């Protein structure tokens, strides 16, 4: 056991959601040590909020030992022993962003969903400033892909999740982002707007909580997939 951490190696089996190593405010050495423990025990380590120094260290430390998938927009990494991949569950998740600036948090959510075995469908920069852009992506997700749940990431006024929830017949997860300025900036206005929605079927996670949105969406999608396959 590590002297500074008690990793939850069995979380994926117990909970259905893998543990994600939040690298923010950990030293690079601590993050590497935890990642190494996960690789040895489970064959996989997932790290979020990875700064450039840690990214470079991960590449050096695990070269030749593990495959590294780098999700650049989210600054997230997945280390795997060669030949290990999450089994595909059949769960289907849609992820929509209001703007391009919301993509990093959305990609964090997408990573979690994929690591939970879900197929992810994305549509980015389709917010209410040009609402016509939403029509075709939403039709694809609901009619063609038949997703089980949709994550909608938005900053500024945070209006897009309510619009989607008013149209979609699947659960919608509002993901407020810290995109915005002035009064209500930093994601506060987006969070309040989503919490005050009058559209039924919208649940909301905290500001910039891509991991939390992905975990909830993955659980919903995997339960729906299990019911389809029963």
Would you give an account of this structure?
It is a single chain. With 230 residues, the protein is of the alpha/beta class. The chain has two domains: 11-80, Translation Initiation Factor IF3, CATH 3.30.110; 92-229, Rossmann fold (3-Layer(aba) Sandwich), CATH 3.40.50.1970. It contains eight helices and nine strands. It has helices spanning 11-15, 28-42, 52-61, 103-115, 135-145, 160-165, 188-195, 210-229; strands at 21-22, 44-48, 67-71, 76-80, 92-97, 119-123, 149-154, 172-176, 202-204. The protein has a five-stranded parallel sheet with strand order 6-5-7-8-9, with helices on both faces. Helix 4 (103-115) runs parallel beside helix 8 (210-229). The mean pLDDT is 95.
Task: Give the topology, please.
Elements: H1 11-15, E1 21-22, H2 28-42, E2 44-48, H3 52-61, E3 67-71, E4 76-80, E5 92-97, H4 103-115, E6 119-123, H5 135-145, E7 149-154, H6 160-165, E8 172-176, H7 188-195, E9 202-204, H8 210-229
Parallel strand pairs: 1-2, 5-6, 5-7, 7-8, 8-9
Antiparallel strand pairs: 2-4, 3-4
Largest sheet: 5 strands, parallel
According to DSSP, the number of beta strands is: 9
Which structural class do you get from the secondary structure elements? alpha/beta
- Please tell me the CATH architecture of the largest domain by its name: 3-Layer(aba) Sandwich
Strand content: 15-25%
Low-confidence stretches: none
Kindly state the mean pLDDT as a whole number?
Answer: 95
Amino- and carboxy-terminal Cα gap? 39 Å
Helicity range = 25-40%
Helix-strand string = HEHEHEEEHEHEHEHEH
Shape: globular
> How many domains is the backbone divided into?
2
The CATH class of the largest domain is Alpha Beta
CATH level-3 fold name of the largest domain? Rossmann fold
Radius of gyration: 18 Å
The DSSP helix count reads: 8
């Amino acid at each position: 056991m590590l002297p500074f951490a008690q990793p939850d190696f069995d979380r994926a089996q117990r909970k259905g959601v893998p543990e994600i190593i939040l690298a923010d405010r950990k030293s690079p050495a601590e993050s590497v040590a935890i990642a190494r423990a996960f690789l040895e025990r489970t064959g996989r380590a997932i790290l979020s909020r990875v700064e450039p120094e840690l990214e470079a260290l991960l590449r050096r430390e695990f070269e030749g030992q593990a495959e590294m998938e780098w999700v650049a927009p989210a600054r997230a990494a997945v280390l795997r022993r060669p030949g290990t991949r999450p089994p595909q569950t059949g769960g289907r998740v849609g992820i929509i962003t209001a703007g391009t600036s919301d993509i990093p948090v959305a990609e964090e959510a997408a990573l979690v969903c994929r690591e939970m075995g879900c197929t992810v469908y994305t549509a980015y920069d389709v917010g209410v400033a040009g609402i016509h852009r939403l029509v075709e992506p939403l039709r694809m997700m609901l009619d063609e892909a038949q997703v089980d749940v949709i994550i909608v990431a938005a900053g500024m006024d945070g209006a897009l999740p309510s619009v989607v929830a008013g149209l979609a017949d699947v659960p919608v997860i509002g993901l407020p982002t810290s995109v915005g300025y002035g009064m209500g900036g930093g994601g506060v206005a987006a969070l309040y707007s989503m919490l005050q929605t009058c559209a039924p079927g919208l649940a909301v996670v905290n500001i910039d909580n891509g991991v939390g949105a992905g975990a909830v969406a993955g659980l919903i999608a995997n339960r729906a997939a299990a019911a389809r396959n029963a």
